[in-house]
C-alpha cells in the first residue's frame, strides 16, 4: 500500500499537467471551493480542536440553577460574560427554595442536572461527591491559582468551601446576622444608641418590654429566646455559642464539640451551656430578661408590626419589613458581642456556586464562576440587587448605605460551622431551645442531645 499511493499521486499530477489551461482552472476552482466549504463547516461546528460533543458544535450552553434571585438580576452579568465568550450561552433558572434540593437530586440522578448550581454554605459535606472542584476541572482558561482566588474573600469561604486543599464553590454575596431596632420605640425610652453588647441588650429589653395587668406580653423588648417562632434561631444560638467560646467542630470537621467543656487559664467552663442559658432567659418567665414566649407570633412579623422593639436577622429581612409596613422606622446595628471581648465574632449565611461533576464543560463553568469573582463583574450583579458583597475589595463601596454597610462590614469577622445537613441541624437546634424553654429538658441535657444528634448526622456522611 505504501508503494502504490505515490504512484497514484504521480498519475494524477501527470493528468493535471496535460490538461488544457481552462480545464486546470476549473479543477482548481472546484478544489478551492471545496476547501472553503470544509473550513466553513469546521469553524461553524466547533473548530479543529475536537473535545466533547457540545464543544465540537461550537456553541457551549451552560445551565445554571439558583435560589431566590430572579433571572433579571443575573441577565446583565451573564450578558457581559457572553460578550467576552461568544461561543458560550448561559441558561439561568431560578428554582423554588422549598423544592430546590429535591429537584436538584432528581435532576442529577437522571443525568439532566445543571452545570452550575447554588449550594448553601453549610451543604458541602452532603454535596461534595456531586461537585467537581476548581482544582480538578480542566480549567485552561482560568489564570489564577486557588489560593490567590481565596485571598479575595473572607476566611469563612475557605472554612465552608475548601476540603482537602480543593475549592468546591464560591459566593457572590455573603450575609450576616445583625440587630434590627425600632427607632421610635427606642427614642420613646430615651435609649440613644442600639446595644452593642449582650449585656446592654438585656438592659434595654427590661426598659422596652411592656406587660398587661395579667402579665401577658404586650410589647417584647426583643424577639429572642425561643426556637420555632424566632426566625433563624439556630444561627443566633450558634453565634452566641461561638462568642461564648464554644468549639463548634472538632479539628477534622467530622464531629461537634459545642456541648463540651473548655479549659482556659485553669478554669473549666461549659460555654455552649452558658450561651443556651443566656439565650433562653429571654423566654423564661422567672428570668429578669423575660420578654418573649412560645405563644408569640413569628419574630419577623412581631417586629414588622411593632410588637417587638428589636430582633436579629439577615439583610434579606429589610425588603420584607419595608413591604409589609412602609411606615415603620427601623435601623440596623451590628450583631451584639460579648462584653470585654476584643475579637468580634459574627455569623454568616450565604450561597456559593459550584460545578456539577456531571458537567461536560466544567472548565467553562468554573471560568464563569471565576469571572464573578472579579470586582468589576461582581459590581454588575450588585447594581441589580440589594445584598452585601462577598469580595473584600467591595466593602468600601457599600458604606454609602448605612444599613447595608453594617452587613458588609461584618463579613470579615463572620464564622460558620459544619453541620452535615443544614436543614436537619436547624431542626435539632430549634428543638434544643424549645425543650429547654418548656422545661422538658435541662440545659445540659438539651445541648448534649443536640450534639449527639448532629454527630449522628456527620457520622453517616
Automatic annotation (TrEMBL):
Q: SUPFAM superfamilies, from UniProt?
A: Periplasmic binding protein-like II
Q: Which InterPro entries does the entry link to?
A: SBP
Transmembrane stretches, start-end: 27-48
**Which keywords, in A-to-Z order, does the entry hold?**
Membrane, Signal, Transmembrane, Transmembrane helix, Transport
The record's GO CC annotations read: ATP-binding cassette (ABC) transporter complex, substrate-binding subunit-containing
Q: Name one GO molecular function term.
A: maltose binding
- Identify the domain of life: Bacteria
**A GO term (biological process) for this protein?**
maltose transport
Q: Which residues form the signal peptide?
A: none
PANTHER family (alphabetical) = MALTOSE-BINDING PERIPLASMIC PROTEIN, MALTOSE_MALTODEXTRIN-BINDING PERIPLASMIC PROTEIN
Family according to the record: Belongs to the bacterial solute-binding protein 1 family.
Q: What is this protein called?
A: ABC transporter substrate-binding protein
Amino acid at each position: 500500500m505504501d508503494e502504490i499511493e505515490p504512484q497514484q499521486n504521480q498519475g494524477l499530477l501527470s493528468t493535471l499537467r496535460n490538461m488544457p489551461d481552462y480545464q486546470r482552472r476549473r479543477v482548481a476552482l472546484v478544489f478551492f471551493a471545496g476547501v472553503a466549504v470544509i473550513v466553513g463547516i469546521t469553524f461553524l461546528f466547533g473548530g479543529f480542536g475536537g473535545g466533547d460533543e457540545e464543544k465540537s458544535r461550537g456553541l457551549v450552553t451552560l445551565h445554571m440553577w439558583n435560589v431566590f434571585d430572579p433571572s433579571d438580576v443575573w441577565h446583565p452579568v451573564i450578558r457581559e460574560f457572553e460578550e467576552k465568550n461568544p461561543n458560550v450561552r448561559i441558561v439561568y433558572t431560578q428554582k423554588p427554595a422549598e423544592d430546590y434540593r429535591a429537584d436538584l437530586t432528581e435532576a442529577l440522578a437522571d443525568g439532566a442536572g445543571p452545570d452550575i448550581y447554588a449550594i448553601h454554605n453549610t451543604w458541602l459535606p452532603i454535596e461534595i461527591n456531586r461537585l467537581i472542584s476548581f482544582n480538578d476541572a480542566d480549567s485552561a482558561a482560568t489564570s489564577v491559582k486557588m489560593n490567590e482566588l481565596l485571598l479575595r474573600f473572607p476566611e469563612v469561604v475557605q472554612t465552608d468551601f475548601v476540603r482537602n486543599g480543593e475549592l468546591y464553590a464560591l459566593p457572590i454575596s455573603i450575609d450576616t446576622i445583625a440587630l434590627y431596632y425600632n427607632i421610635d420605640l427606642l427614642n420613646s425610652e430615651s435609649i440613644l444608641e442600639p446595644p452593642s453588647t449582650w449585656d446592654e441588650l438585656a438592659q434595654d429589653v427590661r426598659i422596652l418590654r411592656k406587660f398587661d395587668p395579667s402579665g401577658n406580653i404586650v410589647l417584647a423588648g426583643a424577639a429572642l429566646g425561643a426556637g420555632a417562632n424566632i426566625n433563624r434561631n439556630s444561627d443566633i444560638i450558634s453565634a452566641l455559642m461561638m462568642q461564648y467560646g464554644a468549639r463548634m467542630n472538632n479539628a477534622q470537621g467530622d464531629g461537634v464539640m459545642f456541648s463540651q467543656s473548655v479549659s482556659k487559664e485553669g478554669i473549666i467552663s461549659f460555654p455552649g451551656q452558658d450561651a443556651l442559658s443566656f439565650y433562653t432567659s429571654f423566654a423564661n418567665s422567672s428570668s429578669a430578661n423575660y420578654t418573649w414566649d412560645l405563644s408569640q407570633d413569628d419574630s419577623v412579623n412581631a417586629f414588622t408590626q411593632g410588637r417587638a422593639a428589636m430582633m436579629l436577622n439577615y439583610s434579606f429581612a429589610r425588603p420584607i419589613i419595608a413591604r409589609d409596613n412602609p411606615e415603620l422606622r427601623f435601623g440596623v446595628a451590628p450583631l451584639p458581642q460579648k462584653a470585654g471581648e476584643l475579637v468580634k465574632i459574627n455569623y454568616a449565611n450565604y450561597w456559593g456556586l459550584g460545578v456539577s461533576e456531571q458537567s461536560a464543560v466544567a472548565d467553562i463553568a468554573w471560568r464563569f464562576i471565576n469571572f464573578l469573582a472579579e470586582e468589576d463583574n461582581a459590581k454588575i450583579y450588585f447594581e441589580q440587587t440589594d445584598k452585601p458583597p462577598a469580595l473584600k475589595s467591595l466593602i468600601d463601596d457599600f458604606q454609602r448605605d448605612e444599613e447595608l454597610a453594617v452587613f458588609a462590614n461584618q463579613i470579615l469577622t463572620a464564622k460558620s460551622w459544619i453541620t452535615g445537613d443544614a436543614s436537619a441541624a436547624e431542626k435539632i437546634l430549634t428543638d434544643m431551645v424549645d425543650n429547654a424553654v418548656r422545661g422538658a429538658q435541662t440545659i445540659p441535657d438539651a445541648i448534649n442531645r443536640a450534639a449527639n444528634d448532629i454527630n449522628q448526622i456527620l457520622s453517616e456522611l
